[in-house]
């Protein structure tokens, strides 16, 4: 007999206030083959990509699509080629956007993009971390080529993080401080300003006000590195002005207008994109690095060198809870991470 599982999905791009924007349904419980792990989901974290995919889908999908890829759960079964994990292991991961997501009772995920869950955190605290930690890690240590353990070398560099209080910024501040950098973060409200300071930001600029005069007032003309985590179009001209000659800018958000790269030509500055799904989307041999990064993040969390960015926990993974969570993410004012436990 075919086993069934509960899931939450969507078929058309409806406003989140519409009760049909996300709905509960039953589907076939998947089976693990090859490098796949079958995970019993214990908690999920909700990210802007979930709402972005829901909202940007055109027409009606033939089958409901299961969103949400960031998750923590227990390995229930493994494919024949699996060598990194066994049934009973507790793991966390950000998944693969080409496949069914984690807003369900069970999910398949390739072992090469999965890490062992931290043991000293609660399920919700740990579930908050994978997608944002992978994004921040790849931005800092792959794109900007910083070295986590070269703190004396990094101490000479200043990193500006635009959007310090969101999910990615909250872990990027901690990783950059751990690596020894001076960190300037942006935040615009008393609650977000307090949050980024508490996470270790050395200085705070308000991204609702022009950034250049604030930077100059703080005594600096340029910053060495910039991590752009919100509104690339809105901040691009300022980023080009604030980056030092031969500096490096990384953006994790897309532009919606043509990006004028000529603004950084005279400075010979570098611009890089970071998308944490590139490795799994294109099935790159480097996929295994996401296993290694998550293993390291797990260890740093257990050691207390990093702390969870969990800010709010909701209970029960169903359509009603997920509609509330999407509504919150869509405000674009989130602080840290929102997690839903099963
Ligand atoms: N490329 C990738 O791999 C990747 C990975 C993760 C996320 N992303 C994308 O990166 C973005 C950030 O993700 P996230 O999870 O960190 O988001 P998030 O948690 O939803 O970010 C919310 C924060 O954004 C700040 N913010 C709002 N408008 C801003 C603006 N104009 N300039 C600067 N900050 C602003 C808000 O601060 P205030 O309330 O103080 O204004 C709020 O604290 C999203 O667009 C997401 O889709 C990309």
UniProtKB/TrEMBL annotation:
Segments traversing the membrane: none
InterPro entries reported in the protein's UniProt record: ADH-like_C, ADH-like_N, ADH_Zn_typ-1, Chloroplast_QOR, ER, GroES-like_sf, NAD(P)-bd_dom_sf
Enoyl reductase (ER) domain residues: 17-340
Gene3D superfamilies assigned: Medium-chain alcohol dehydrogenases, catalytic domain, NAD(P)-binding Rossmann-like Domain
Pfam family, one: ADH_zinc_N
CDD domains reported in the protein's UniProt record: AL_MDR
Similarity comment text for this entry: Belongs to the zinc-containing alcohol dehydrogenase family. Quinone oxidoreductase subfamily.
Name this polypeptide is given: Zinc-type alcohol dehydrogenase-like protein
Origin species: Liquorilactobacillus vini DSM 20605
């Amino acid at each position: 007999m075919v086993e069934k599982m509960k899931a939450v999905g969507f078929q058309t791009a409806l406003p989140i206030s519409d009760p049909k924007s996300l709905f509960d349904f039953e589907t076939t419980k998947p089976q693990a083959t090859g490098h796949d792990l079958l995970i019993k989901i214990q908690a999920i974290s909700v990210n802007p990509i979930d709402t972005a995919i829901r909202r940007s889908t055109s027409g009606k999908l033939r089958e409901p699509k299961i969103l949400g890829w960031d998750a923590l759960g227990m390995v229930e079964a493994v494919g024949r080629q699996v060598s990194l994990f066994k049934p009973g292991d507790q793991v966390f991961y950000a998944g693969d956007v080409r496949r069914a997501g984690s807003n369900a009772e069970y999910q398949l995920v390739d072992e090469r993009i999965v890490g062992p869950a931290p043991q000293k955190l609660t399920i919700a605290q740990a579930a908050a971390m994978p997608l944002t930690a992978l994004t921040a890690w790849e931005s800092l240590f792959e794109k900007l080529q910083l070295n986590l353990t070269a703190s004396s070398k990094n101490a000479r560099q200043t990193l500006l993080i635009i959007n310090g209080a969101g999910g990615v910024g909250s872990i990027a501040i901690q990783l950059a401080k751990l690596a020894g950098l001076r960190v300037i973060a942006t935040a615009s409200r008393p609650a977000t300003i307090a949050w980024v300071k508490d996470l270790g930001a050395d200085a705070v600029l308000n991204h609702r006000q022009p950034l250049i005069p604030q930077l100059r007032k703080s005594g600096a003309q340029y910053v060495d590195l910039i991590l752009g985590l919100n509104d690339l179009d809105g901040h691009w001209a300022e980023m080009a002005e604030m980056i030092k000659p031969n500096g490096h800018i990384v953006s994790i958000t897309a532009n919606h207008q043509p990006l004028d790269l000529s603004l950084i030509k005279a400075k010979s500055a570098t611009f890089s994109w970071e998308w944490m799904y590139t490795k799994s989307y294109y099935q790159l041999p480097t996929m295994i690095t996401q296993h290694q990064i998550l293993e390291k993040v797990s260890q740093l969390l257990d050691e207390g060198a990093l702390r969870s960015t969990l800010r709010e926990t909701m209970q029960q993974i169903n359509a009603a809870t997920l509609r509330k969570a999407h509504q919150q993410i869509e405000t674009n004012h989130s602080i840290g991470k929102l997690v839903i436990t099963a």
